Amino acid sequence: MKTAKPGLPTVAIIYNEPEPELYVKKSPSNFDNLNFIPYFEVENTTPMEDYETFAKIIEMRGFNCSTVNLKDDFHLLVDELTKNRPDVIFNFVELFNNNPKLEMNVTGIYELLEIPYTGAPPLALANCQSKVFTKRLLGSYGIKTANFELIKTFAERYKHSLRFPIIVKPAYEDASVGIDFNAVVHNNSELNAKINYIFSEFKQAALIEEFIEGRELNVAVMGDENPVVLPISEIDFSAMPDHLPNIVSYQAKWDQMHEAYHKTIPICPAVLPKKIQAKAEKIALVAFKVMGVRDYARIDMRLSKDNELFVLEVNPNPDLTEGAGFMRSAEAAGLTYDEVLEKLVRFALLRGEKAHPRPFPKGRGV
Fold first, then answer.
1. What is the pLDDT at residue 45?
2. Whether 12 contacts 84, CB under 8 Å
3. Domain count, the chain
């Protein structure tokens, strides 16, 4: 870590990009041969550059800040945190050794070293990682999710009691990994093929659930002891072509060269009846607390054609890209990008201060 300015809290932005050299920047010319008109501009930065930008913003808000790339090296993590112990960790680690289930283990190291960090604790990360456990836990609190079954073992034909269309997902992935434009199936032949694909490519159980036709809502929640719901965002599927399902697939989230990326248009704040909005906000707060997440999360829901709300996922530590997802709702609430990053740091600092009191500067406050 670089030399700290005296008297300011130190923040370590920790992320894990094992092969940063593999990132290739795109340019506007990449869109020349597309058979559709792009809606969004090309984001021409690498994750490493984004983290450096985060660090500069956090420093401007009154902290010392450095970035650390773990590169799948456990010893590097422990050595860095023991030799250059920060006052708080801004945690951006989402997987380790290409295994998303190890995300919780990294935060476990933070816990053992008693260093406060942003975002969800280990148990919450583990709980949210399991889509089935999430559905069962939310269901015990009266929160609706789609009817589902978990397919654990290979079969020639998969028996089920669900109604088509059905959406098929890996049971233990996040960020829409494994959810592509073939994820929604309409008959048993398609279902069998998709389940076998999940087994083959992801080496894990397949979650199959009834596909909820309707509107998709992203409900962002921010805070620790007193979380608040930010303006609700909606994904508008009206421009989606007929050959693509109305879902936020992996391609729609991350592939700037895919048509789905440019045909899932965010609307924030979403235009909703007041009763539906109030119900969605209440469900989001309950889900936030039940799943044990903190600081920031995004609860994805479907509003069915008969105005029933179904939770799709609870996403701890969602993407903080400016203008997208969680940040879109924060900006609609009147918060600047810089303010949000500072608030998340100070949530963690406050937890650390309560656990191990010490004189942190008050700064702009949470």
1. 83
2. yes
3. 3
**Residues 198, 220: one domain?**
no
DSSP class of residue 201 equals H
Q: Does 197 share its domain with 317? A: no
- 121, 115 Cβ separation under 8 angstroms: no
Answer yes or no: is pLDDT of 48 > 90. Answer: yes
Q: Which residue has the higher pLDDT, 173 or 2?
A: 173
Assigned domain for 271 exists:
yes
SS3 call for 188: helix
Q: Which two tokens stand for residue 127?
A: 């709980």
CA distances from 51 to 55, 66, 184 (A): 6, 9, 35
- Same domain assignment for residues 204 and 275: no
138 with 255, same domain: the answer is yes
**Do residues 50 and 154 share a domain?**
no
Residues 90 and 204 in one domain: no
Tokens 């965002």 locate to 233
**Closest Cα to residue 310, out of 169, 167, 139?**
139
pLDDT single digits (tens) 176-210: 888 998 999 999 999 999 999 999 999 999 999 99
Residues 138 and 187 in one domain: no
CATH of the domain at 152: 3.30.1490.20
pTM: 0.91
CA 54/CA 337 separation, integer angstroms: 10
Residue 228 lies in a domain: yes
Closest CA to 361 of 117, 8, 88: 8
CA 204 to chain centre: 20
Q: Give the contacts of 175 (CB within 8 A, at least 6 positions apart).
A: 94, 250, 253, 254, 319
Domain interval for residue 78: 10-117
Sorted by sequence, the CB contacts under 8 Å of residue 77 that are 6+ apart come out as 14, 68, 70, 106, 109
Which residue's entry shows tokens 């656990």? 355
Residue 236, φ and ψ in degrees, nearest 5:
-85, 120
Look at phi and psi of residue 218 and say left if phi exceeds 0, alpha if psi is from -120 to 50, else beta.
Answer: beta
CA 329, 332, 335, 338 torsion-angle sign: positive
CA atoms within a 13 Å half-sphere pointing along the CA-CB vector of 66:
17
Classify residue 3: in a domain, yes or no.
no
CA–CA distance, 54 with 135 (Å, rounded to integer): 34
**Do 193 and 63 have their domain in common?**
no
